[in-house]
TrEMBL record:
This is histidine kinase. PANTHER family: NITRATE/NITRITE SENSOR PROTEIN NARX-RELATED, NITRATE_NITRITE SENSOR PROTEIN NARQ. Its EC number is 2.7.13.3. It comes from the Bacteria. Pfam families: HATPase_c, HisKA_3, Sensor. The keyword Nucleotide-binding applies. It is an enzyme of class 2 (transferase). Keywords: ATP-binding, Kinase, Membrane, Nucleotide-binding, Phosphoprotein, Transferase, Transmembrane, Transmembrane helix, Two-component regulatory system. Residues 560-650 form the Histidine kinase/HSP90-like ATPase domain. The chain crosses the membrane at residues 20-49, 134-155, 161-185, 220-253, 338-356, 396-420. InterPro entries: HATPase_C_sf, HATPase_dom, Put_sensor_dom, Sensor_HK_TwoCompSys, Sig_transdc_His_kin_sub3_dim/P.
């Protein structure tokens, strides 16, 4: 029994050393993860992050298996299941969110990123690797340390102190005795952090807070990578403008400006997605090529060109170079790496300095790793990190470095959202259209909508004229002729005259019905009497497919707005039934924040293209008169969702005539 006890406890000592090795491997994995998250590897974050995160899961999984084998403690796998490979759409492309891709690489990569970074277990693994360096390493190495230290003390001090041998043996015996207990404690410590968690309202709030701040840090790194890309583009732009005189400037300036516009436009798009503030495009519209003159030459400003190609090229060059928004883009491109980069680097620098320059060296010194062994793991600048406190001894350095580093890293996490908002404001300051540009865009928009409104009015008048001429007018002429025949037959053939009167009455009733339909097409009475919500409900009742209408309008709108929205929704419902072959349609009509929003959704075959037909273009022209916008989402196979948005105000409280 004694030999079994000794063997079991000695095996526990060896197991403790193995657990200390796992703790060291976890520390190295944690440093590798931080290296990917550093500002210097912003571009590598996108492509290199999934691999170390996926490889880093082997260390926690090893700790879970050892906890089960050596302590009998089962720790379930907390990770989400691996995503399935992307499947092609009917047209052969691959869908990710609201975009289609010809290759499955990017959808698969995005799904893998979401699988790794969207899993809370990933961040709990990182927390365990950071803390297990001290906790798990001490629990694992303590028994072996007591054994080696006790035996070494007994061997080296036996001739100096009479009590050295018994004290050393007692220390070694204590290390052997507590080894199984510490291995079991290590298993429970591992289960505490690496087992699946049970969600509670408090834990969900904590996860949401951590998730928001981690997302902010990822966005900061992404913006920093774009700033580095902007540096290269800024150097190219300056070289083209300064050195590319003459022919070189003519050839290279337009594509350089278009690259700058692309990057600035992408930043406006990110600004709208991340801050909710839509930044309009400030550029002037590209002018159309003028028609050739009678002599066959093309006139652009005061220059004449023999071919349309050169005329279009020079017109494009002047359009790009003379737009004030172009030079504001160039100013942003040159200054963003300095101003925007400084804003982005502040929180990231605090996190880097706190974790890498203070916390990690402090932890390594506490566990006994000397400076020479640390030098190949990382390097610190003169006067920074552990070298700044080196004069106070390793214990003082570790004691000050760890809490100071954690505090600086936490400060960087806390100020990151503020810095991101500040960067958004800086970007909007230079990339948003100026007031003068907004007025110019407004005048252009009003000119286009006025032309569309005039054309739509002319088309509507021609339709009314055609309907009156071919319908009600023809029937009224027939009624007049019939009454003339009745006058002649009144005395000669009363029976025939009576039959003609019956026919005239029927014809007049048909003419009256056609006139009512015509008036209803111009402005439905139900719209004037009961408002937009009830008018759309009346439309839904006449459709041959089930239609669900949800209306939240706290009041009446102006008559032109109601009319435009009514006929736009009517056109969309007609398209859903006639072209999409839908079996179910929903209409959601709401008023919020000074805007009327209507969303018409159907489960039809999809594939609606605003550029392919006149229906959706007509809806856009009708709403464009009132600064309305139309957004279409219609992937092949459906469903189709068309959103209408009109800026307006409520003109009167909601009323209804029963």
């Amino acid at each position: 029994m004694t030999s079994t006890w000794v063997r079991r406890h000695l095996i526990a000592v060896v197991r403790g050393l193995a657990l200390a090795g796992v703790a060291l491997a976890g520390a190295l994995g944690f440093v590798a993860h931080l290296a990917v998250f550093t500002p210097g590897f912003g571009l590598g974050l996108i492509f290199l992050l999934p691999r170390p995160v996926e490889l880093g899961r082997h260390i926690p999984n090893l700790a879970r298996r050892l906890a089960y084998r050596w302590s009998g403690l089962v720790i379930a796998d907390p990770y989400r299941p691996r995503p399935a490979p992307p499947q092609p759409e009917p047209d052969g492309r691959y869908r990710h969110l609201n975009k289609l891709y010809r290759s499955p690489r990017f959808p698969a990569f995005s799904a893998r990123m979401d699988w790794l970074l969207g899993d809370n277990a990933t961040y709990r693994d990182l927390t365990w690797m950071a803390l297990n360096t001290a906790v798990g390493g001490v629990l694992g190495a303590l028994p072996a340390g007591l054994v080696v230290g006790g035996l070494g003390f007994a061997a080296t001090r036996a001739g100096v102190y009479w009590w050295a041998v018994p004290a050393g043996l007692v220390g070694a015996l204590v290390g052997v005795a507590i080894a199984p207990v510490l291995v079991a404690v290590h298993a429970r410590w591992t289960a505490l952090l690496l087992r699946p968690t049970v969600s509670t309202p408090r834990s969900e709030c904590r996860k949401a807070w951590i998730g928001r701040h981690l997302l902010v840090l990822v966005r900061l790194l992404y913006l920093l990578a774009l700033a580095l890309l902007g540096v290269l583009l800024a150097v190219l732009t300056v070289l083209v403008m300064v050195l590319g005189f003459g022919v070189g400037q003519v050839y290279f300036l337009p594509p350089t400006i278009e690259l700058t516009r692309w990057l600035a436009g992408y930043r406006r798009e990110l600004l709208g997605k991340w801050s909710g503030v839509v930044v309009e495009t400030p550029y002037r519209p590209q002018p159309e090529l003028p028609a050739p003159r009678p002599d066959g030459l093309y006139e652009v400003d005061a220059n004449l060109y023999e071919t349309a190609r050169w005329a279009a090229y020079n017109q494009r060059l002047k359009w790009l170079s003379r737009d004030p928004a172009t030079w504001r883009d160039v100013l942003w491109l040159v200054t963003d790496p300095l101003v925007g980069g400084a804003v982005l680097l502040l929180p990231l620098g605090l996190i880097w300095y706190g974790l890498i320059s203070l916390t990690v060296p402090g932890i390594l010194r506490l566990v006994g790793v000397d400076a020479a062994a640390q030098s190949w793991l990382f390097s610190t600048s003169a006067g920074l990190g552990p070298t700044a406190l080196s004069g106070h001894g390793p214990t003082v350095v570790a004691g000050l470095a760890i809490p100071l580093g954690i505090a600086l890293a936490l400060l960087g996490v806390l100020v990151a959202p503020t810095m991101l908002r500040l960067h958004h404001r800086w970007t909007r300051l230079l990339l948003a259209p100026t007031r003068r540009a907004q007025l110019a865009l407004r005048v252009q928009r009003l000119t286009e909508t006025r032309a569309d409104a005039t054309e739509a009015q002319a088309v509507e008048l021609r339709r009314i004229e055609r309907d009156l001429h071919d319908g009600a007018q023809a029937r009224l002429v027939a009624v007049g002729l019939t009454l003339g025949a009745v006058e002649q037959l009144m005395d000669q053939d009363p029976a025939a005259a009576r039959a003609l009167l019956t026919e005239a009455r029927e014809t007049s009733a048909k003419a009256l019905a056609e006139l009512r339909d015509l008036v209803r097409g111009i402005h439905p009475p139900v719209l004037a009497e009961r408002g937009l919500g009830d008018a759309i409900r009346a439309l839904a009742l006449d459709l041959p497919v089930p239609t669900e209408v949800t209306v939240e309008l706290p009041g009446r709108l102006a008559e032109p707005i109601e009319s435009a929205a009514y006929f736009a929704v009517s056109e969309l419902l007609t398209n859903a039934v006639k072209h999409a072959k839908a079996s179910r349609v929903t209409v959601d009509l709401r008023y919020a924040d000074g805007r009327l929003r209507a969303v018409v959704t159907d489960d039809g075959r999809g594939g609606a293209d605003p550029t392919a037909g006149s229906g959706l273009r007509g809806v856009g022209r009708r709403l464009g008169t009132f600064d309305g916008v139309v957004a279409v989402s219609s992937p092949p196979g459906g469903p189709t969702a068309v959103s209408l948005e009109l800026p307006c105000v409520l003109s009167s409280p909601k009323t209804s005539i029963s």
